[in-house]
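Service request form, structural biology core

Requester: graduate student, group of Dr. S.
Request type: structure prediction, single chain
Budget code: on file
Notes: please return the result as structure tokens.

Sequence provided:
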Amino acid sequence: MKTQLLEITTVKELYLTQVEDMSNGCEKSRSSIQKIKDKAQDKEVKEFVGIALSAMDKALEIFDGIFENHNRHFDNTQNKALTALGAEAEALVLEQDYEKSQLRDLAIISKLRNLIHYPIAGFETFITLAKHMGLEEDLSLLQKDGKSVISNDDAIKQMRDMEQRLLSELS
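Core staff response, request fulfilled:
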């Protein structure tokens, strides 16, 4: 079955279609993140995955606010990228046998890293487009003090630290 393509004729249509697509991808990958959280054995890794789920929920609330700002009903797009990343995470974490729990926890961190980078890039694009169009209400949802409300700088450092600790436990 061939997917019906949309005709995008304005920056605003592009923006809202991309927000819808990201919202759809976040919804689909959220269930994968929940499943891999349940497999984490390390307390810090499990807590971190919980934080990632909370950030995903915050992003979904922001997307709902944007849809409300534009009186737009969410169109269930077919975000293939985040869906595929979620499926890859499930396959690696849930369908493989691991001799040591630290190995599975390292796999969880690896796949979570992939899953959280994608929405960050999307938020940066949404901010750029919203600024261009002067969508102040959307910008108030997307950023605070001129910076994206969804950031992964601290998360990257925390993942790196957890990876180093787990690797040292395996040595």
